[in-house]
Write a structure and sequence with these properties.
Blueprint lengths: L24 H11 L1 H10 L2 H17 L20 H32 L5 H4 L3 E3 L9 H4 L3 E3 L5 E5 L5 E4 L8 E5 L4 E8 L2 E6 L2 E6 L3 E2 L9 E2 L11 E2 L7 E4 L5 E4 L8 E5 L4 E3 L2 E3 L2 E6 L2 E6 L3 E3 L4 E8 L4 E9 L4 E5 L6 E5 L5 E3 L5 E2 L2 E5 L11 E4 L3 H12 L3 H15 L4 E7 L1 H6 E6 L4 E12 L19 E9 L2
Parallel strand pairs: 30-31
Antiparallel strand pairs: 1-2, 3-6, 3-9, 4-5, 6-7, 7-8, 10-11, 12-15, 12-19, 13-14, 16-17, 17-18, 20-26, 20-31, 21-23, 21-29, 22-26, 23-24, 24-25, 27-28, 28-30
Helix pairs in contact: 7-8
Length: 492
């Protein structure tokens, strides 16, 4: 096969002539036609060999005559490149920037950030991290303002309830959980962990959660018991609240004791109570107690009342799991009952409800507890105890009684009964009796309770503090049918 332009012999599969560079596409097609066996045989059969050479020469001359020269053909060895549109280039650049940014962000969050912050902390610790900057703005340097100090809360820690109407203890860390207890204002709590602004603590044997919004690191100021406001010295002031079965004592001034309309010397006197007269407390405010004398109510200064002595106001609470009849009796080793409620008839028979309400089967009257007093004066144990200033009586009792196992409805009754007579002393030596009390006043209950707590405080006024070891407090767990009793004695 030969080049149609220069006549040089070429190979069948060449695209361009190696001598003159002429493109040989159409000749390649011819070559392919010539290589087909059937067509080639047919051609040889129809035309002799001599005519074939003659035809080839004639075809070459025709190509030349028709002007198939080298300059009429372009060089197709390198096809021309097409340029991309501008909008396509912009899309490619923007896409590359976005992909690069995504890779950088992923590297930061999954690789670099964990290395900077360190390992994850437990939830209850992580939520307690506090970050503060202490440098004042006007004096801080550029390096100072960037410094932060991080501290982790340590547990357990002390907290105090601040809610005036009480703080609910719930089963879980949130308002959606059931309330199981009401924590009174001023109650000291031991918090062992916090989660999502809720504190985990145990109060009166019950474990639960309370809101951190109503907790403080220092004991709050708790208002003392108040009376109805009155500026008129001729108007009788009533206590708020009244006290059931308050303590009783005797007037100890030889000239008698002024009986006034209000708790203070600015109120008019309405009578004089003679020396040795017995009075019973029905309310109090500061150093003054509200009593009844000759059919009238009024106020006397408790400093001039000597307690009757003996065992004062033991109160027995019954909490059965279901309503049931309960028989209660107290056997005194010495002395006699001086007051009881309900009336004592060889014991008490009551219908006790799970909420503590008692119904006297003899009269049908209802009570919150069984009350009794006696003139018994056993030999108390003074080897362990506490020395407390009179002015700190309330705070001390609010702290110690819940730890011993009393709940608010019980220890508030206790405080309202004992605070008026204890706070007037310079100091009080306070003890909590065990065997000497339980042996002197044996408690019998049928049916037998599952858990029983008996707290009896004996105290005496002292002028100066003394050193005395504090007793060990054993936590009390309420389970099943629970019985709780508290009482006390002022020892002269």
């Amino acid at each position: 096969m030969f080049c149609p332009n220069c006549g040089k012999e070429i190979k069948p599969d060449d695209l361009f002539c190696t001598s003159c560079g002429t493109k040989l596409d159409f000749l390649q097609q011819e070559s392919e036609w010539q290589q087909e066996p059937d067509d080639q045989n047919e051609y040889q059969e129809d035309y002799p060999e001599e005519y074939s050479d003659e035809y080839q020469d004639e075809s070459q001359d025709n190509y030349q005559d028709e002007g198939y020269y080298q300059e009429d053909y372009q060089d197709y060895s390198a096809p021309p490149r097409k340029r991309l549109p501008i909008w396509a280039l912009i899309l490619i650049i923007v896409g590359g920037v976005l992909v690069t940014a995504a890779i950088v962000i992923a590297l930061f969050f999954f690789i670099l950030k964990p290395r900077i912050q360190g390992p994850d902390l437990p939830t209850e610790i992580r939520t307690e991290e506090v970050t503060t900057t202490e440098v004042p703005t006007e004096t801080a340097t550029k390096s100072d303002t960037s410094k932060e100090t991080t501290t982790q809360a340590t547990y357990p820690k002390k907290k105090w309830a601040t809610a005036k109407d009480g703080l609910l203890l719930r089963e879980g860390p949130g308002k959606q959980y059931n309330a199981i207890y009401l924590i009174l204002q001023g109650t000291e709590l031991t918090v062992d962990k916090e989660e999502n602004n809720w504190a985990h603590t145990t109060v009166a044997g019950l474990t639960g959660w309370c809101s951190c919004d109503y907790l403080t690191d220092t004991p709050p100021e708790i208002p003392q018991q108040t009376t109805a406001a009155s500026t008129d010295p001729n108007t009788l002031v009533y206590p708020d609240p009244w006290i059931d079965y308050g303590y009783h004592g005797y007037v100890n001034t030889q000239d008698g004791l002024m009986f006034r309309l209000g708790p203070g010397t600015n109120y008019n006197a309405i009578d004089v109570i003679p020396y040795g007269t017995e009075v019973a407390e029905e309310g109090w405010y500061g150093d003054w107690i509200f009593v009844k004398y000759n059919g009238r109510y009024g106020w006397v200064n408790s400093k001039y009342i000597t307690a009757s002595g003996g065992m004062a106001k033991p109160a027995i609470y019954l909490y059965p799991e279901t309503s049931q009849v309960v028989s209660v009796d107290v056997e005194l080793s010495e002395g006699n009952f001086t007051r009881t409620a309900p009336l004592y008839h060889n014991g008490w028979n009551v219908l006790a409800a799970p909420n503590g309400t008692l119904t006297d089967l003899a009269t049908g009257k209802t009570y919150d507890y069984i009350f009794w007093e006696s003139d018994s004066e056993p030999a108390y144990d003074w080897s362990e105890g506490y020395v407390v200033e009179g002015k700190d009586t309330r705070a001390f009792l609010l702290d110690i009684l819940p730890k011993m196992g009393l709940i608010p409805s019980e220890y508030l009754e206790f405080i309202n009964y004992w605070q008026p007579r204890m706070q007037k002393n310079a100091y009080n030596l306070i003890t909590f009796q065990e065997e000497c009390y339980t042996d002197a006043a044996k408690l019998k209950i049928d049916p037998q309770p599952d858990s029983c707590l008996r707290i009896f405080m004996a105290y005496k006024a002292i002028d100066t503090p003394i050193d005395i070891p504090a007793p060990k407090i054993t936590p009390f767990e309420r389970k099943g049918f629970t019985v709780v009793e508290w009482g006390g004695a002022e020892v002269q």
